[in-house]
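Regression test case RT-17, inverse folding.

Input:
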């Protein structure tokens, strides 16, 4: 019951979702929520699968293994269930603003969603690249043909605004994070998948993003909410994107795989280990937010020079 209320804190919404999921009458749902009737095993399994609830962790089974889950989402034409999941993510992030000690950290070799979500063409480019690499499409789709639905765009904007409500955020960037992206853009431009006009438009968004990141680095916070943000540049290469969220309400860690998918776990021990491992990454990184003005200027100057090659 605690897990169900975490998913849908409002009783009316929880009832509606259970009615739709289990295909049972409203009164039958109410009897279950009042604990007058137990959820039968088949309903428990159905709920666990649909709402990504680990039954092993829920009932305290210690198998010596950590269970990771992956949420598969069709980012081109998301179903209503997938849209509801994305709405739940935004709702969960917004709730973190009530916990001042909440901490988010992302180690990344590609631009994280926290920033991409606010830039339509950059977001579209990563989706286009994902389709090209993993989409299993019969025909190759050029950049112009990758259309993000209106509902998904609205959720991206909601996510972009919500993430700024996290009280404390840390980002460690691979030193070549923009170089990787620019090389990808050049590749698709070379094979005529991106036009001259589209390339220039993406470049303009990158310039805008760099300006925004510089403002964050100078002030050490999101300009919209003034919530704390620490930016670091790793002196060692980063293999993929990792992140965790640590708060009194819920702890979770992610491995970001195949560009668009997240493999995650709520396992307490694993989240604590993730936090420890990721904090140690600061040893081989240089903080460019607020402190070390020379390194900050050198980093952003180099990125602007790279952009000129587009």
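Golden output:
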């Amino acid at each position: 019951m605690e897990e169900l209320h975490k998913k849908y804190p409002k009783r009316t919404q929880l009832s509606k979702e259970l009615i739709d999921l289990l295909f049972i009458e409203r009164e039958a749902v109410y009897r279950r929520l009042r604990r007058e009737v137990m959820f039968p095993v088949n309903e428990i399994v159905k709920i666990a699968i649909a709402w990504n609830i680990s039954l092993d962790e829920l009932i305290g089974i210690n198998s010596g293994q950590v269970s990771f889950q992956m949420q598969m989402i069709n980012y081109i034409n998301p179903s209503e269930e997938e849209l509801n999941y994305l709405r739940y993510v935004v709702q969960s992030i917004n709730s973190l603003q009530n916990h001042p000690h909440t901490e988010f950290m992302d180690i990344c070799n590609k631009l994280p969603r926290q920033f991409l979500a606010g830039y339509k063409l950059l977001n579209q480019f990563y989706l286009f690249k994902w389709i090209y690499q993993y989409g299993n499409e019969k025909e190759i789709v050029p950049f112009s043909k990758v259309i993000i639905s209106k509902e998904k765009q609205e959720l991206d904007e909601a996510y972009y605004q919500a993430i700024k409500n996290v009280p404390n955020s840390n980002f460690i960037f691979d030193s070549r994070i923009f170089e990787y992206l620019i090389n990808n853009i050049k590749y698709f431009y070379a094979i005529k998948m991106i036009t001259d006009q589209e390339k220039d438009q993406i470049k303009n968004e990158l310039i805008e993003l760099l300006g925004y990141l510089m403002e964050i680095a100078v002030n050490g916070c999101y300009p919209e909410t003034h919530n704390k943000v620490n930016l670091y540049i790793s002196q060692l290469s980063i293999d993929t994107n990792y992140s965790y969220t640590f708060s009194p309400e819920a702890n979770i860690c992610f491995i970001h795989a195949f560009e668009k998918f997240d493999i995650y776990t709520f396992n307490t021990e694993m989240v604590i280990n993730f936090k420890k491992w990721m904090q140690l990454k600061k040893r081989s990184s240089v903080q460019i937010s607020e402190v070390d003005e020379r390194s900050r200027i050198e980093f952003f100057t180099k990125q602007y020079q790279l952009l000129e090659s587009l």
